[in-house]
Amino acid sequence: MPLHLEPLNISDELQEHSSALIVTCPICPPASLASDSDSPLIDFFKRGIKTPAYEDFIGELTRTLEQRGIKTGVFTSYLPSPIACGWTKGQRKRLLKRARNFDTVLVMGCESARYTVEETLKDTDCEVILAMRFVGITNASLTFEFPFTLRLGDLACVDANQQAAQELKP
Ligand code: SF4
Question: Residue whose CA is closest, atom 6 of ligand 1?
């Protein structure tokens, strides 16, 4: 199951910036927002393959930034690899091209997503800001509802560090 991430308040970090590209990993962040709001992961006939709670969050973030006079854009890449921690060279090249028009990049993802973005943009002046924080690993039962809705049920957030520490005991 995906990492459980929660959005951070990044208002202060954006004070000096006039443009921001929101780079979203399309796996863990949508699952996190859907589970936090107890809403569907996928509601295919209403929103396609996009997660409603996550799309609403990104839409609201974009509106808020634009109201502050910050030009915004959104970058997500699904193919050939949807996970930002495994984006291909081609996907990273597309991000580099897109980010050249912005002075900062907000990473909606984990530290590994941030690493992908920082490595990709290391030769640019773009500031990379992590906009989510890791709180654990999601554990859930995937449930299907007619006609094509997916939900995460029986949710739990597992503390990865505690589990690792227990396993390392002799
Ligand atoms: S980059 Fe992070 S948030 Fe995205 S899929 Fe990989 S582990 Fe999940």
Answer: 85
Ligand 1 pocket test target in 23, 25, 117 with most atoms within 8 Å of CB: 25
What is the per-residue DSSP string for 101-167?
A: T-SEEEEES-HHHHHHHHHHTTTS-PEEEE-EEEEEEEEEEEEEETTTEEEEEEEEEE-HHHHHHHH
Task: Record the pTM.
Answer: 0.90
Determine which helix (DSSP H) or strand (DSSP E) holds 62, and give its type and residue range: helix 52-67
| CA–centroid distance for 80 within its chain | 17
The CATH number for 85's domain is 3.40.50
Length of the chain: 170
C-alpha–C-alpha distance, residues 109 and 120, integer Å? 15
Residue with tokens 């393959």: 49
Which residue's alpha carbon is at the smallest distance from atom 5 of ligand 1?
83
Q: Which of 76, 130, 131, 126 is nearest to 104 (CA)?
A: 126
Number of domains in the chain: 1
Range of the domain at 133: 3-168
- What pLDDT, in 10s, does the model give residues 25-82? 999 999 999 999 889 999 888 888 899 999 999 999 999 999 999 999 999 999 999 9
By CB atoms closer than 10 A (0-12, 13-18, 19+), residue 111 is middle
